[in-house]
Write a structure and sequence with these properties.
The complex is a heterodimer.
Chain A: H1 3-13, H2 19-28, H3 33-53, H4 58-78, E1 89-94, H5 102-114, E2 117-120, H6 127-137, E3 141-145, H7 154-164, E4 172-176, H8 182-187, E5 192-193, H9 197-209
Parallel strand pairs in A: 1-2, 1-3, 3-4, 4-5
Helix pairs in contact in A: 1-2, 1-3, 1-4, 2-4, 3-4, 3-9, 4-5, 5-9, 6-7
Chain B: H1 5-13, E1 24-25, H2 28-36, H3 49-56, E2 59-63, E3 68-72, E4 76-82, E5 85-92, E6 95-104, E7 111-116, H4 125-133, E8 135-139, H5 142-150, E9 154-159, H6 165-174, H7 176-185, H8 187-210, E10 215-220, H9 224-248, E11 252-256, H10 265-268, E12 275-279, H11 289-292, E13 300-306, H12 316-329, E14 336-341, H13 351-363
Parallel strand pairs in B: 1-2, 2-9, 9-10, 10-11, 11-12, 12-13, 13-14
Antiparallel strand pairs in B: 3-8, 4-5, 5-6, 6-7
Helix pairs in contact in B: 4-8, 6-7, 6-8, 7-8, 8-9, 12-13
Classes of the chains: A alpha/beta, B alpha/beta.
Chain lengths: ~210, ~375
């Protein structure tokens, strides 16, 4: 097994103990840092698939994310001066009056892990704040999360505000959260629905490619 | 003799075949929101939740989170407002920990979220453990009033607290992400904290068992992607211990089991819990009611109508069709209490609660054939 495939395998199984050493060995073997990053991101996509299919749980994803962070610590110096190409920019937040963030945080971890540039606005984010951030950050995608039936209608309010501000055509909107269904997300004006972090990766990749 | 709403629920949990499906409805989110925003339907302005549910013909399922209040000893507890937050500092001989809460007015001014958790890093282990070891629960006098107001019109849903001991550490004290990081790095310290929390919970359980409560809630709010990895280690032993004590006192144990549950279903049977409440099937989760039945024939399923079905986006016809199909799936109807999972949404038409009652009269007489 090559140094880098061993490293990727460790990311997939979430074994972080040798990640630093293996990353350094991959660099020392002459591999380009950006190639190592791409392969690691491929490993995170596998983790996302395992999470979506029900094989993996939150702690599995967290172990893999920890592996990625440790690998990036070592890669940092080798990456100096190299501009990694981002898959796209995602602006994400939990909608107004909703304080829940675990689902959103899982999505953020997966998107970052596979190479998206992610701006996390946190929880309780108003339609106005989403619009201001869209103007400021110019994302490709806006991710809206809601956990409560009391707050899920805020998804539609954000979409409407984006329309009123003339920003809707510049972004794709993806919605998710426990009470949100695909049908509901569409009715609120979202372009897509993501059931979990793994699915969010597939959908965001598809949206930026389209 | 006609059964009262409360007795019908208790008989079903005891495994008896009653006259018709009980309907234990929960409307606190809807109610609190509309009271806070002065937007209750004209007919119901000034009414209590229980009176509204009685008017709709349903049994009331009213939340009263805990019959225990926590008192703190050998430490100084300082509360201060830092709008919009409420900060509580626990000053102990071992150091200080603080929690920062924000109150959600969206569901009425009654629900607090931890903006900053009590446990923030490994230095907090001894302090949090000290706090737990010096917390003494006492009976919450407010429960008696709730119980009296409810009478035989339903059940006051209460117990040791909203969370069981493990869930409280995972969700309230640490937060899931920090919990799993600590679980990876310092499992023995996590274990110590869990033990301290269980010891506190045992004291609360004793209070519950002595109180005038038939159904004791032991935990709430799960999702199988978060909880399954620790369920057998931390949740099951506590549920078994607590359920055995509860059963010995002639009472029933319950957990509020909404969220994605597929991977927890096979583990539920081992818990000895009597009721899985707020059961939320498709389209709000990925599980069907048939799958939930695999929790065990001794388990009473309470729920079955996802909250979103009460939303105006589902037509009256779609709602009726769903409820009628649900009754057929659950035939003959034993060990099943109809309920919304987990609450009537803010945008809902309250009269759909009454519509469920009408459908029970037509299609929910037991046994369903």
């Amino acid at each position: 097994m090559s140094k880098v495939s061993d490293l990727v395998q460790k990311v997939i199984v979430g074994d972080w103990k040798d990640i630093g050493r293996l990353t350094q060995e991959a660099i020392d073997s002459g591999l380009k840092a950006e190639d190592i990053v791409h392969q690691l991101q491929g490993g995170m996509e596998v983790v996302g698939q395992k999470y979506s299919s029900g094989e993996y749980f939150l702690p599995d994803m967290m172990k893999s994310a920890r592996c990625m962070n440790l690998a990036f610590e070592v890669l940092k110096s080798a990456m100096k001066g190299i501009q990694m190409e981002s898959l796209g920019k995602v602006l994400i937040g939990t909608v107004k009056s909703d304080m829940h963030d675990i689902g959103k945080n899982i999505v953020v971890s997966f998107l970052k892990g596979v190479g998206f540039d992610v701006i996390d606005l946190g929880t309780d984010v108003s339609d106005t704040k989403f619009c201001e951030a869209v103007v400021r950050e110019k994302p490709n995608i806006v991710g809206l999360s809601a956990l409560l039936t009391t707050t899920m209608h805020e998804i539609g309010i954000v979409v409407k505000k984006l329309e009123e501000a003339g920003l809707r055509s510049s972004v794709k909107v993806v919605a998710g959260g426990a009470p949100v269904t695909e049908d509901f997300a569409r009715r609120m004006g979202a372009d897509a629905y993501a059931a979990d972090g793994g699915q969010a990766v597939v959908i965001c990749k598809r949206l930026v490619q389209s | 003799m006609t059964l009262t709403q409360k007795q019908r629920i208790l008989d079903v949990v005891a495994g008896k075949m009653v006259d018709k499906l009980p309907f234990g409805a929960r409307i606190d989110v809807w109610y609190n929101y509309h009271v806070a925003h002065d937007s209750l339907p004209a007919k119901y302005k000034g009414w209590s939740q229980t009176d509204i549910m009685a008017d709709q013909g349903a049994a009331a399922q009213k939340r009263f989170f805990s019959v225990c209040k926590e008192t703190y000893h050998d430490m100084e507890v300082v509360k201060r407002d830092e709008p919009p937050y409420e900060v509580t500092e626990f000053i102990t001989p071992l150091g200080t920990c603080s929690i920062k809460l924000i109150w959600s007015v969206n569901e009425g001014p009654w629900l607090a979220y931890e903006h900053e958790k009590l446990f923030k890093s490994q230095k907090d282990y001894p302090i949090v453990k000290y706090i737990l070891e010096h917390t003494v629960p006492i009976f919450h006098e407010g429960y008696a009033k709730e119980r009296k107001e409810m009478g035989d019109r339903g059940i006051v849903m209460t117990g040791t607290g909203l969370w069981g001991p493990s869930q409280r550490v995972m969700r309230e004290i640490m937060g899931y992400e920090l919990f799993y990081n600590e679980y990876m790095d310092r499992p023995e310290k996590v274990d110590e904290l869990m033990t301290a929390m269980i010891n506190l919970e045992r004291k609360k359980l004793d209070i519950c068992i002595k109180a005038d409560i038939e159904i004791i809630n032991l935990c709430a709010n799960w999702s199988d992607d978060i909880h399954t990895p620790v369920f057998k280690e931390y949740f099951t032993p506590w549920f078994r211990e607590a359920s055995e004590k509860i059963h010995a006192a002639g009472k029933f144990s319950m957990a509020h089991a909404d969220g994605e549950m597929r991977r927890l279903i096979p583990l539920y049977a081992d818990t000895l819990l009597d009721i899985a409440e707020a059961i939320t099937p498709v389209p709000q989760t990925k599980c069907t009611m048939t799958e939930f039945r695999a929790m065990g024939n001794h388990v009473t399923l309470w729920g079955g109508i996802p909250s979103i079905m009460f939303e105006p986006s589902f037509s009256n016809q779609e709602f009726d069709d769903y409820v009628k199909a649900l009754f057929k799936i659950m035939k003959p109807g034993s060990r099943f209490i109809v309920g919304m999972a987990d609450n009537l949404p803010v945008a809902a038409d309250i009269n759909r609660v009454g519509r469920v009652v009408e459908l029970i009269e037509k299609y929910g007489k037991l046994p369903i054939t």
